[in-house]
């Protein structure tokens, strides 16, 4: 990998992605080999938006590599509350840490932040923009369960605002996957993303109903449709209901179908699916640690 | 400067009077002349002498607009932005009634600090020390921070 920063999945080539996933697999197989690889290293966590999984798994990843983390804590108690710009905050924390992880509600925030610092910077979500490390753990999970070759994947739910979806779609265009996007019309992929995917020559099809293509899928990636996207509660209930899955839905699916979800789920996936061989979403969340360890190892290893 | 002005063109040139010193922006896409003035920040308040021809016949474009500004030579930065809405334009610099240089606009790969991003969720719309940057596409511009693509009404985004 020749990158100093990881801002979008678009910037990652197939080779970059495979390098990271291969390293993650090595670490996954033998975590003790890297248990003290970065004893002096401090990772700065700058989360300007709530996060559970991403933040904790970055923290775990750094600690499992032998390093430590510092954290600006909640926005309420930090200097941001006093009106400090993001550009100033990252420049200050850069002096304390060897690499930064930034989540911020504005699109393009990580791109901007990276312009102000010399240490490696990882985007942990910039508004409705990108979330490349989620994508890497998604790809790792897909590779472990269904393989990335000749993949047919359905991505369902809120495709408009879901940054995990955008990042995943960009990355999958490197692997010649057949990508099916299933959503209500009002939550379709942004036209910018479709434009880019076509530019990349990706195989992209949009559907309003899962039934049309469920039987052809190797992976079904479900995302949450958020209540606040709908002005009307009834409208939300009606639409969200059409994009939930249970055992009945999966009768039409292949036995080998892998079901994924970035979590947290509300009621998109019925709990009865959890105990079946289809369910990969908890494994997916766990994969966040080895994948982020691999990414930190590659970024920090290059920097050393 | 010798040019290939036909009798027909000369007649149209006369519709908008000759200038002594300044810039003639020719072959502007029909209907964009007022946007060209907006980009240049020309609204008459500075007493500039400006002549505008809208929808005049042209060999190259069928219909074109033409803008003549007395007493002002355009900077490269102004020409770059102009290229976004008038990609076929030619810029003639006039001194003492003579065209001293004539060139077509070239679309830059990127424009900085001239447009603002229409996406309210973009970091460049915040109070951050950041300069807006747009990649120039074949048929629009794209914010290099949030990725928003703008194809229409680019002139509305001029700062």
UniProtKB/TrEMBL annotation, chain A:
Belongs to the aspartate/ornithine carbamoyltransferase superfamily. ATCase family. SUPFAM superfamilies: Aspartate/ornithine carbamoyltransferase. Residues 5-144 form the Aspartate/ornithine carbamoyltransferase carbamoyl-P binding domain. It catalyses: carbamoyl phosphate + L-aspartate = N-carbamoyl-L-aspartate + phosphate + H(+). Pathway: Pyrimidine metabolism; UMP biosynthesis via de novo pathway; (S)-dihydroorotate from bicarbonate: step 2/3. Catalyzes the condensation of carbamoyl phosphate and aspartate to form carbamoyl aspartate and inorganic phosphate, the committed step in the de novo pyrimidine nucleotide biosynthesis pathway. Its EC number is 2.1.3.2. Residues 150-298 form the Aspartate/ornithine carbamoyltransferase Asp/Orn-binding domain. The keyword Phosphoprotein does not apply. This is Aspartate carbamoyltransferase. GO terms for molecular function: amino acid binding; aspartate carbamoyltransferase activity. L-aspartate binds at residues 82, 163, 224. One of its GO terms (biological process) is 'de novo' UMP biosynthetic process. It comes from the Archaea. Heterooligomer of catalytic and regulatory chains. Carbamoyl phosphate binds at residues 53-54, 103, 131, 134, 263-264.
Automatic annotation (TrEMBL), chain B:
It comes from the Archaea. Residues 110-152 form the Aspartate carbamoyltransferase regulatory subunit C-terminal domain. Binds 1 zinc ion per subunit. Signal peptide: none annotated. One of its GO terms (biological process) is pyrimidine nucleotide biosynthetic process. Residues 14-106 form the Aspartate carbamoyltransferase regulatory subunit N-terminal domain. GO terms for molecular function: metal ion binding; transferase activity. Pfam families: PyrI (PF01948), PyrI_C (PF02748). GO terms for cellular component: aspartate carbamoyltransferase complex. Keywords: Metal-binding, Pyrimidine biosynthesis, Transferase, Zinc. Zn(2+) binds at residues 117, 122, 143, 146. Gene3D superfamilies: Aspartate carbamoyltransferase regulatory subunit, C-terminal domain, Aspartate carbamoyltransferase regulatory subunit, N-terminal domain. Its cofactor is Zn(2+). Belongs to the PyrI family. Contains catalytic and regulatory chains. Involved in allosteric regulation of aspartate carbamoyltransferase. This is Aspartate carbamoyltransferase regulatory chain.
């Amino acid at each position: 990998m020749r990158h100093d920063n990881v801002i979008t999945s678009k910037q990652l080539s197939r080779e970059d992605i495979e390098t990271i996933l291969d390293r993650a697999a090595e670490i996954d197989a033998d975590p003790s080999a890297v248990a003290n690889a970065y004893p002096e290293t401090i990772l700065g966590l700058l989360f300007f938006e709530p996060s559970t999984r991403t933040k904790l798994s970055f923290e775990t990843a750094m600690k499992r590599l032998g390093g430590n983390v510092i954290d600006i804590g909640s926005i309420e108690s930090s200097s941001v509350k006093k009106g400090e710009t993001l550009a100033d905050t990252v420049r200050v924390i850069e002096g304390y840490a060897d690499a930064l992880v930034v989540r911020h509600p504005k699109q393009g925030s990580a791109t901007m932040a990276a312009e102000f610092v010399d240490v490696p910077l990882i985007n942990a979500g910039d508004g409705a923009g990108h979330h490349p490390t989620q994508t890497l753990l998604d790809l790792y999970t897909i590779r472990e369960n269904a393989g990335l070759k000749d993949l047919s994947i359905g991505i369902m739910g809120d495709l408009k605002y879901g940054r995990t979806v955008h990042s995943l779609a960009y990355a999958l265009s490197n692997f010649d996957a057949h990508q099916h996007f299933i959503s209500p019309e009002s939550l379709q992929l942004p036209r910018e993303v479709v434009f880019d995917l076509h530019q990349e020559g990706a195989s992209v099809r949009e559907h309003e109903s899962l039934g049309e293509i469920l039987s052809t899928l190797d992976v079904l990636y479900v995302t949450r449709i958020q209540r606040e996207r709908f002005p009307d509660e009834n409208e939300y209930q009606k639409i969200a209901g059409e994009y939930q899955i249970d055992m009945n839905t999966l009768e039409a699916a292949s036995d080998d179908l892998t079901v994924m979800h970035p979590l947290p789920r509300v009621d998109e996936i019925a709990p009865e699916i959890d105990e079946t061989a289809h369910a990969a979403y908890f494994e997916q969340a766990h994969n966040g640690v080895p994948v982020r360890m691999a990414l930190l190892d590659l970024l920090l290893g290059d920097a050393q | 400067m010798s040019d290939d002005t036909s009798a027909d063109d000369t007649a149209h040139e006369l519709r908008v009077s000759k200038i002594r010193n300044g810039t003639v922006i020719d072959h502007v896409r029909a209907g964009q002349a007022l946007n060209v003035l907006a980009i240049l920040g020309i609204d008459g308040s500075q007493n500039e002498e400006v002549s505008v021809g809208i929808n005049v016949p042209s060999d190259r474009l069928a219909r074109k607009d033409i803008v003549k500004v007395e007493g002002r030579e355009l900077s490269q930065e102004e020409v770059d932005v102009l290229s976004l809405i008038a990609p076929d334009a030619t810029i003639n610099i006039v001194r003492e009634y003579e065209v001293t240089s004539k060139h077509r606009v070239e679309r830059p790969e990127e424009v900085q600090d001239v447009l603002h991003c229409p996406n309210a969720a973009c970091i460049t719309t915040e109070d951050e020390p950041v300069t807006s940057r747009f990649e120039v596409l074949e048929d629009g511009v794209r914010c290099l921070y949030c990725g928003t693509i703008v194809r229409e009404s680019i002139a509305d985004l001029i700062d």
